[in-house]
Amino acid sequence: MMPAARESLLDAARAALARRPWSTVRMVDVAAAAGVSRQTLYNEFGSKEGLARALVRREADGYLAGAERALAAHGTPHERLTAAAEWTASAARDNALVKAMLTGCWSERLPAPTLSAVPFPSDVPAQRRADGLLPSPGDFVAIVRDRAVALLSAPGVPTAETAALARTCELVLRLALSCVAAPPGEGGVAELVRGVLHRQPV
């Protein structure tokens, strides 16, 4: 299947999920909305579970790409970490699947695929990827923390300083996740993060 058609199927699945609980989303309706046959949909994803896993994987990749952009932007390390924290909170606020992935709290409306790899015989490389491990909330923290350290640390920095930077990055990310569960008041995520970073080495 062409990548554009696969994306159309995932777009159709996400649109259907916005209108009704995942348990009531029908494969035939997703296929029709994407303009393909139901058999084509099954050929690509194998099952409704396979479609759910691929959808969750795509949303996870989108969140991580946004975090990467925030961390790689121009500005001081404090500004870039603040931007990553703001992205984390806004992505979770705007996308129920991202919020569920980051917090581990899956509502009954959402698909809740298992995080472990799921064996499924398929010759479609994308299908095998969808069958692989899905990130847990802790995995997301580790991935973004490690990427932040790689982008923000200078070559030749002593190990102790790198470890301190990693702790600060993780603290900022966990603060952002706490804002997902309990949204902050006036000043928002940025003000909370700036208060933490003022006292932390970066």
Which properties best describe this structure?
202 residues, single chain, mainly alpha, 69% helix
Which secondary structure elements does this structure contain, and how are they paired or packed?
Blueprint: H1 3-19, H2 27-34, H3 38-45, H4 48-72, H5 77-94, H6 96-103, H7 125-131, H8 137-152, H9 159-181, H10 188-197
Report the end-to-end length measured between terminal Cα atoms: 46 Å
Report the count of strand segments: 0
| Poorly predicted tracts of residues | none
Give the structural class: mainly alpha
Mean pLDDT score: 87
The biggest sheet amounts to: none
Principal-axis shape equals: elongated
Strand content: under 5%
- Percent range for helical residues? 55-70%
Radius of gyration: 19 Å
Helix/strand order, N-terminal first? HHHHHHHHHH
Overall description:
- By secondary structure, the protein is mainly alpha-helical.
- 69% of the residues lie in helices and 0% in strands.
- It contains 10 helices and no strands.
- Helix 1 crosses helix 2 (27-34), helix 4 packs parallel to helix 8 (137-152) and helix 5 (77-94) crosses helix 6.
- The termini are far apart.
Give the structure's gist in a few sentences.
The protein has 202 residues and is mainly alpha-helical. It is built from ten helices and no strands.
